Amino acid sequence: MGIYDRVKALCAQRKISVAELERNLNLSNGSVSKWNKNQPNSEPLAKVSDFFQVSTDYLLGRTDKKYWDLSERESSDIAQQVEDIINGMEDGGAADMQFYGEPLDDDGKEKLALALKMALELNKQEAKKKFTRKDYRK
Questions:
Q1: What is the pLDDT of residue 134?
Q2: Is 1 exposed, middle or buried (0-12, 13-18, 19+ CB in 10 A)?
Q3: How far apart are CA 117 and CA 79, in angstroms?
Q4: Rounded to whole angstroms, how far apart are CA atoms 33 and 131?
Q5: What is the pLDDT of residues 24-52, one digit of tens each?
Q6: pLDDT tens digits for 7-17?
Q7: What's the rounded Cα separation, in Å, for the pair 65 and 101?
Q8: Which of 7, 101, 125, 132 has its CA 20 to 30 A from that of 74?
């Protein structure tokens, strides 16, 4: 996937056209579509990177990871948090917890753990988007 394709996909996610992106960033008309054949200069590339809150390496195709993707350590920490929450619920009476009159069984605990993991991961990613300094977003 080339630079233009990545920008086009990011535009689609935001539900804007490439032309709208160019207008928002004061780039010349059609300049981004030229990135299909030519490498962009650093200034417009940085503008697009900042607009979508992705690294320039992501736009250039050097990595598929956006800066807010979770590291292995962060994922491991979240898994531990989920385990602690589930264990805390068991210690605090989750064995008696019921859903629609049915006790929480192992399958229910797994589903609850998956939901908690997803919620914690999404919150961590949002926090990274919001609070990561621009000079660390590479």
A1: 62
A2: exposed
A3: 7
A4: 31
A5: 999 999 899 899 888 888 899 999 988 98
A6: 999 999 889 99
A7: 43
A8: 7
Asked whether the whole model's pTM tops 0.85, one would answer: no
Among residues 23, 21, 17, which one has the least CA distance to residue 48? 21
Whole-angstrom distance, CA of residue 46 vs CA of residue 62: 15
Which residue do the tokens 């535009």 mark?
11
**Residue ranges with strand state E in 60-101:** 98-99
Give CA–CA dist 105/111, Å, rounded: 10
Contacts of 82 (CB under 8 A, 6+ apart): 113, 116, 117, 120
Give per-residue burial for 18-35: e unless 16+ CB within 10 Å, then b: beebbeeeebeeeebeeb
> Could you tell me if 121 and 70 are in contact, meaning their C-beta atoms sit under 8 angstroms apart?
yes
pLDDT in tens, 48-85: 988 988 888 888 888 776 656 677 788 888 888 888 88
The 3-class SS string of 1-34 reads: CCHHHHHHHHHHHHCCCHHHHHHHCCCCCCCCHH
